[in-house]
Give the backbone structure.
Amino acid sequence: MQLGLISDVHGNQPALEAVLEDMPAVDRIYHCGDAVGYNPFPEQVLNTLTTEGIDSIQGNHDHKISTDIDAMGTATDPDIDGDADLRPGELARLAGVWTHERLDADEMEYLATLPQEATIEDGAVKLVHGKPGDQDGRLYPEEYGPHLFGDESILVHGHTHVQHAERFDGRLLVNPGSVGQPRDGDPRAAYAVVDVDARRADLHRVAYPIDEVVDEIRRTSLPDLLTLWLENGEIVMNA
């Protein structure tokens, strides 16, 4: 069984299209959450996920944008004077409110009703967004270890936007990386293909037209600082 794994598309339709075109033949594709937020194509991304039959779990941005947007604050903040003063959480909040204002009721319901975790392949594979039992918990490669596993033999997560895979006593822990906003220094869109029987992950990167996303961000009211995150493949806090 070959599974295509993607995560953290974050409203980046050109990156998602590039990944789906580049991905080799697989039996199923799964998305580990955060379909929306940050980038300017949320409606298109949700349409692609549903029409392509890609099963998704809910990320923290999906949850807040669809069910608890007040937790992200308001789109206008008098304490923020230009992009240069934005911190990552504030940038996420502004982009989240922008996204919330553009999704219709059906799209909101889709995001709000996604499961926070999923166990597939007869219990062999578990999908989470952050950490097991903690949707918003961040799990970096240096924290990997056998203690994270339950009954599954393959544990898949996203959220950190850092691509990595590692084996522990025959079990596999993998983050396919971010499709729409990598933060590991490589701006190319990331995904993984997992052989369930062999418990092996092949990590992939593919170039996509970042300039198309940058141009669209600049045509909207989204913070321009987001363009640097895309172009550098990491969080950049000075314009």
About this structure: The helical segments are 13-22, 42-51, 60-67, 88-100, 105-112, 210-219, 225-232. The mean pLDDT is 93. The beta strands are 2-6, 28-31, 55-56, 117-120, 125-128, 154-156, 164-168, 171-175, 189-195, 200-206.
